[in-house]
Design brief:
alpha+beta, 7 strands, 9 helices, seven-stranded mixed beta sheet, Beta-lactamase
Amino acid sequence: MIDRRQALGLIAGFVLPPPARADVAPQRSEIRPALAQHFTDAGTVGTFVGYKVEDYLVIASDTDRSGQAELPASTFKIPNSLIALETGVVGDPDQDVFKWDGVVRSIAAWNRDHTLRSAIAVSAVPVYQEIARRIGAERMQHYLDLLDYGNRDIGGGIDQFWLTGRLRIDPVQQVDFLDRLRRGSLPVSKRSQDLVVDILPVTRVGDTIIRAKTGLVGAQASRPELGWLVGWAEKGGEATVFALNLDVREPRHLDDRMRLSQACLHDIGAL
């Protein structure tokens, strides 16, 4: 018997510190280089990690990038929503309204009032920055420590740390966090976890439901933008938790986040 977090870490060639959680059955891990071909065919590079829950099987496209920590960008809207609900910054994801600040931004869907549900659907960054400010640094740090989220570093500004600051998380850690959310085993209330699962954007592919959140890290001096898609697929009572990131070298690669995730999920029998 080994700890779930430790088992997930093994796929990336390192062992994560085991938190005090119940042991699970020993997990298997596999590297399937054929999955990486999807990124090559799309004219980019990336990584995919999938955890087939019922099989206790972690599958990754590679041994290197799957363990490289990056800014979470808008995938942080998942824990940010959870913390907002847990602290009471948001009481009801459909009733509490965040008023538009009147600043016209390039994404038209951001230029209006939002609830938590509508804000996560259009990935409204200004709304979540306001949520983070209302949570405050002390409570935010407490909950990132409690949730064991990434490197738990909120340096760089309370409304910037997940966008341009010091917070980092790798694909394996994304899978671990999301699986704990999916199972309702995070150390916060069941209500908060259930509500966050409920507001996650949903894509239906045949008889499979994919709950997932995108993220986009801005371009840096030595590299292009980085696109995330993290979530899980539910099919016939079985679940596969996954995390994908890729270099956004062309605008079409934004849509490729979902397309390539579905291709990898199909290859591992999750679609």
